[in-house]
Design a protein that fits this description.
Helix 2 packs parallel to helix 3 and helix 7 packs across helix 9. 44% of the residues lie in helices and 19% in strands. It is an alpha/beta fold. It folds into two domains: 131 residues, Nucleotidyltransferase, domain 5 (2-Layer Sandwich); 169 residues, 2-Layer Sandwich (Nucleotidyltransferase, domain 5). Strand 1 and strand 2 form a beta hairpin. It starts with 7 loop residues before the first strand and ends in a 20-residue tail after the last helix. The strands form two sheets. A five-stranded mixed beta sheet has the order 3-2-1-4-5, sandwiched between helices. A five-stranded mixed beta sheet has the order 8-7-6-9-10, with helices on both faces. The longest helix is centred in the C-terminal third of the chain and has 27 residues. The radius of gyration is 20 Å and the shape is globular. The mean pLDDT is 96. The structure holds 5'-O-[(R)-(carboxyoxy)(hydroxy)phosphoryl]adenosine and zinc ion. 5'-O-[(R)-(carboxyoxy)(hydroxy)phosphoryl]adenosine binds next to helix 6 and helix 7. The site of 5'-O-[(R)-(carboxyoxy)(hydroxy)phosphoryl]adenosine (KG4) has 19 residues, from helix 6 and helix 7.
Length: 342
């Protein structure tokens, strides 16, 4: 079924609470994107329980890989290389994907490529934006990371800003929990905000003195908690929709301001967003507007490619494959893997 020059990557992702597998053709064509989400299971506990996540990954991984191959209409014989997320993430969760990938590689001789999870998130932009090529600036905002990155080339990154404390997604999750929305907070705050007034409450926009591109969200989270406590002590009712909308506006304003400042200062005309928070509807609208005003071309993946998936790992794996990167069977999970490290 394939031209011999075609490159088919089987990608596996299990760094947090999604067990995912995908087949990507020639780096930009997603032939399948299977995601088995554990969200419903972790909702019971108000967040991801690492031990439960690992066990669920073990139950699902083989089935998810088989489905991805089937949906793509390929067999392992067609696969050029196997790309797998090996960090950062939950160690027990990562190990399941890494072990599955190594087992397939060992049994078939198909080359193995360890992929950085954040590199995957950034690469999600290449799926639907066929014309997008580095260099560009990318904001990665997920549950564990808030990074401003200059994508200098495929797999070549310079981190220019990062969070000093909570990641943006973490702030969404914590505030959602405080106003009783449950886990995961991002999508719930996104939805509830549409019914609220974003100017009802003024929450602080933190500036980090030493680096104008860094973020800090813990002060904002505390301000929301203080506001809620204040209302409770005074016996005043809380309008959850107004809290959600005002909090969300504060996060988005900081993300937009820092990102556009970086794009201009570093002299780029392309800007992309990535990670779970990038699926936020108001954030996408705010960036759309700010980029248009500043004559910057704005790129964003569809929401399904923003949250964790294996297609993005397949895309990143493809560019690593082209560069000749191969991992040995001693590939291990690296829970705190830094971007740009191998
Ligand atoms: O990228 P991701 O799926 O996993 C990590 O690598 O962390 O991101 C998950 C994070 C969670 O904190 C979740 O609340 C947030 O992304 N998120 C959102 C939205 N959808 C997911 N945050 C704001 N608005 C959304 N619509
Ligand atoms: Zn992620």
């Amino acid at each position: 079924m394939s031209d011999t020059k075609d490159v088919f990557i089987l990608a596996i992702e299990s760094s947090c609470d999604e067990t995912a597998a995908s087949v990507v053709k020639n780096g930009r064509e997603v032939l399948s994107n299977v995601i088995s989400s554990q969200i419903a299971l972790h909702t019971l506990y108000g967040g991801v329980v690492p031990e439960i996540a690992s066990r669920k990954h073990i139950e699902k991984i083989n089935q998810v890989i088989e489905e991805a191959l089937k949906e793509a209409g390929v067999t392992l014989k067609d696969i050029t290389a196997i790309a797998v997320t090996y960090g950062p993430g939950l160690v027990g969760a990562l190990l399941v994907g890494v072990s599955a990938a190594k087992a397939i590689s060992f049994a078939t001789g198909i080359p193995l490529i360890g992929v950085h999870h954040i590199e995957g998130h950034i690469s999600a932009n290449f799926i639907e934006n066929k014309e997008l090529e580095p260099p560009f600036v990318c904001l990665v905002a997920s549950g564990g990371h808030s990074h401003l990155v200059v994508v200098k080339g495929y797999g070549e990154y310079e981190i220019i800003g990062r969070t000093r404390d909570d990641a943006a997604g973490e702030a969404f999750d914590k505030v959602a929990r405080a106003i009783g929305l449950g886990y995961p907070g991002g999508p719930k705050i996104d939805k509830l905000s549409k019914e609220g007034n974003p100017d009802a409450i003024h929450f602080p926009r933190a500036k980090v003195q030493e680096n104008e591109y860094d973020f800090s969200f813990s002060g904002l989270k505390s301000a929301v908690l203080n506001y809620l406590n204040g209302c409770q002590m005074k016996g005043e009712p809380v309008c959850k929709a107004d809290v959600a909308a005002s909090f969300q506006k504060a996060v988005i304003e900081v993300l937009v301001e820092h990102s556009l400042h970086a794009v201009k200062e570093f002299g780029y005309d392309k800007f992309a967003i990535a990670g779970g928070v990038a699926s936020n509807s108001s954030l996408r609208a705010a960036f759309e507007e700010a980029c248009a005003e500043n004559h910057v071309t704005f790129y964003h993946p569809s929401p399904i490619f923003c949250t964790d998936n294996a297609a993005m790992i397949g895309v990143a794996g493809y560019y690593e494959y082209l560069k000749g990167v191969r991992s040995g069977l001693d590939l291990n999970a690296v829970p705190n893997l830094k971007l740009g490290e191998r």
